[in-house]
User: Which sequence fits this backbone?
């Protein structure tokens, strides 16, 4: 699949990557609308990108269609249209359950898109712990 990535400091480009795979509590989505924000500017041209490996797919906010869900996902099914926020922490961790979701696995770890895994600016993207992360919205 194709994704828009930071290829090096100050440069972006299309990269080819394997399609993501869903774990038992995860979902794979196809984006419908993306929400670029100033964080992308800092990741591409600023020092924030120094924490990203080369060719990491950008983006951390999206609206998408669920393509596939893991066996333990109960709230969503393929075809659902959903909203994915920028903050998608590991809610199974004690710090998250105590209200520190943004930093559940270390500083700023609640925003894994771009920093710990590929983001949403791709043909498909992975959402961890789907039932806790994404919100469904009604369709007409």
Assistant:
């Amino acid at each position: 699949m194709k994704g828009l990535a930071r290829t090096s400091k100050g440069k972006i480009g299309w990269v080819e990557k394997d399609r993501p795979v869903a774990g038992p509590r995860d979902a794979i989505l196809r984006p419908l609308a993306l929400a670029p924000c100033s964080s992308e500017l800092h990741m591409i041209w600023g020092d924030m990108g120094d924490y990203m490996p080369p060719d990491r797919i950008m983006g951390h906010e999206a609206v998408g269609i669920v393509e596939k869900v893991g066996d333990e996902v109960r709230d969503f099914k393929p075809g659902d249209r959903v909203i994915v926020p920028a903050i998608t922490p590991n809610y199974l961790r004690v710090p998250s359950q105590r209200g520190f979701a943004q930093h559940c696995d270390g500083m700023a770890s609640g925003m894994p898109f771009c920093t710990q895994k590929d983001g949403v600016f791709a043909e498909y993207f992975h959402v961890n712990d789907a039932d806790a992360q994404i919100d469904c919205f009604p369709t007409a």
